[in-house]
Amino acid sequence: MAVAPFKWDDAVQWDGPGAIAGGEELAGDRLDRARYAEFLTNYLVAEGKQRNYVLNLNAEWGAGKTWFIKRWYMELKADYPTVYIDAWQQDFSDDPLLTVISSIIDQLRDATGNKVAIPDGIKSKLLGLLKVGGKLVLKSAIKKAGWEDSDFSVEGEDADKLVDTLCSNHKERYESIQFLKQEIRQWVEGAVGLSEGELDYPAFILIDELDRCRPSYAVEMLETIKHIFDIPGVVFVLATDTEQLQHAIKVIYGDGFDAESYLGRFFHRRFTLGSISRREFIQQAIVDKKLHFEHINAWPKITDSQVLVNVLTAVCDHFSLSLRRTEQVLDRMIASIVNYQGCTINLIFLVYLFSLCEKNNEDYRAVVDGKMPTTDNHPKLKGFNALINEYVEQNFSCFIKAESSMGTHIEFMGDGKYRNPFEDKEYNVSLKELLVASYKSMLNPALDYSYSNRLLDLVKEYSSQCRKLTVKESSTLAEKELSQLERRLTTYKNLVELAVHLD
Ligand SMILES: Nc1ncnc2c1ncn2[C@@H]1O[C@H](COP(=O)(O)OP(=O)(O)O)[C@@H](O)[C@H]1O
Ligand SMILES: [Mg+2]
What we know:
This protein is α/β, with parallel strands linked by helices. The chain has helices at about 35-50, 65-75, 95-110, 120-130, 135-145, 155-170, 170-195, 215-225, 240-255, 260-265, 280-290, 305-320, 325-340, 345-360, 360-370, 385-390, 430-445, 455-465, 470-475, 480, 490-500; strands at about 10-15, 25, 55-60, 80-85, 205-210, 235-240, 270, 300, 345, 395-400, 410, 415-420, 425-430.
């Protein structure tokens, strides 16, 4: 069956398992992921038609696995029996196999329009697999799986016996698994057969958020479901932050354990969602949010969305923020600046604080409370310079009013008048230099708006010889403007702390 090309440009409402009316919206594709979906679908359909296939979809936390899996699910289910399992939401049940099998059966039942009844045998076999210790736990597990007590005979001595005998009996457990595999196979056949040509093989079982689960649960989930992995015509896709999962495995089996080979045994292949350009992501996010920034009183002045893109990209790249954190910082920044009224806000410093607050709360506290020294020579305290140097230096293009802010001529005490050789234009500046200058001017709000010696030297030197400015020198040109912005740290602190409630 040919799969229509994926058109993911528009936002859609998530309508899969766990969806609530008016709930989650999946943004339009900003990462060119449709290409991946098309490739993976074609590949897995070819692989999975005859045999079973287990794919590990890998990407770091916040890089877009859940978005991808959900969006993909919504397309796949039109052509293939498809099951979506959020392992994390199901973490409660304490029994991975119950979670997976009950989700598979429930969702395949939906796919067949509820036309296939639960066969009698399956209930007792499922019960046989539960690793619960007693009737009460068993009952609550059944409830949580969304079934009725009446689906199962769990009353009286029989149930106790069932629990006791089946849980401890390995042979029985093995047979139960074989039986359930057959059942799943038959359910898939039912879904394809009853669909009157709409659905085809293979079935897709997409399992997300394993890396959000408790380590023991995640490992147990993997080890349990590997028993049902080998059903012909069924493709399993497990989305994980594979490096995180390897840590989890080492928590269980010890530091020296070769978690990579261990994981390798579960999967036929690993597919890594390509790393993304944060700039592109931010660019599209800003377009999507249709932000009106004409009246925002900020520096650098937001003349168009590119100014915001430059500032946000520089800061989020500086901290190597994940996509999720980047989007969070963007939303929080927007919420706070559209509400802000007061003197011109230092946007770069504000975005920096939002990101720092996400990245390292202790450092954030020291900065907003003004307790972090600007220099690095304090015997005990970390200095702001050292903090900045822990992360990646960034340069970006920024409009500086080098002429308007300083005037056409600059008067030097006892040294005559020099023409200001600089103009108002875009300069390539250093994030680090701007942040250090901003923080300094905030720690000393009493400073008058004098020129720094560096700035004066630059004017003098540059008026005698015209050459290209270095990034550091260009950044110095912003000092005058920086000193004229809102300089009370508490203003910034309040803005950040109001907006962090926005999750
Ligand atoms: N292709 C995409 N287009 C637009 N936004 C995306 C895309 N992929 C992810 N996002 C957004 O990035 C953030 C993190 O994505 P998510 O899927 O939750 O990451 P993960 O599951 O890998 O931790 C979410 O806010 C999500 O909406
Ligand atoms: Mg996720």
